[in-house]
Amino acid sequence: MPFQSFELLVSTNCSFYFYFSVKISQKYKGRRTDEKRNPNMHMGQNKPVQKKSPLYEESTIIFASSQNEKLVEIEKEKRLALIDAWEENEKAKAQTKAYKELCSIESWENNMKTALELDLKKMEENLQVEKTEFSKKFKKKIPEIEKIAEAKREKIEKQKEQESIKVEKISEKLIATPNAYPPNTKTCGCF
């Protein structure tokens, strides 16, 4: 049986190439399978054995049994080689399938991370917009607050001036009337 090889080239979307070759049989390389032995020749003899002799029956039985054993052995080796080739092929398929699934998981993970990063950037942009809006509102409120505070200060200053004027008037009255100190205090008539 000449050298036979089984080649499998698997290509996935993840640029993965896997190549292997299985030798089925090299034991029979170069041997011609069309050679046939003459069953009329006894082993080790060059002259034909007569069909009626007991050697003829013995040689055909020996030849048939040895040929059957060789065929059985060849078939067994062939079967084992095919099983090995099938096993390697199935392992390669499993590896390829696992690699594809790993690639798809990795791409899914990368897509999810990218989506989260985009969401984070959008949130940051929204926060930045809200921050600028709030800062504008606060900047608008600051002059209003300052205006209100100034009005309250003026009111207090006016009250302070009115109190000081009132105190000055009372002090002038007290100066004008010598017995009137302390103001609004009642004294006992005996003292």
From TrEMBL:
Residues 31-52 are annotated as: Disordered. Residues 113-173 form a coiled coil. Residues 78-177 form the Remorin C-terminal domain. The keyword Cell membrane does not apply. Keywords: Coiled coil. The keyword rRNA processing does not apply. Belongs to the remorin family. PANTHER family: OS02G0117200 PROTEIN, REMORIN FAMILY PROTEIN. This is Remorin family protein. It comes from Arabidopsis thaliana (Mouse-ear cress). The lineage of its organism: Eukaryota, Viridiplantae, Streptophyta, Embryophyta, Tracheophyta.
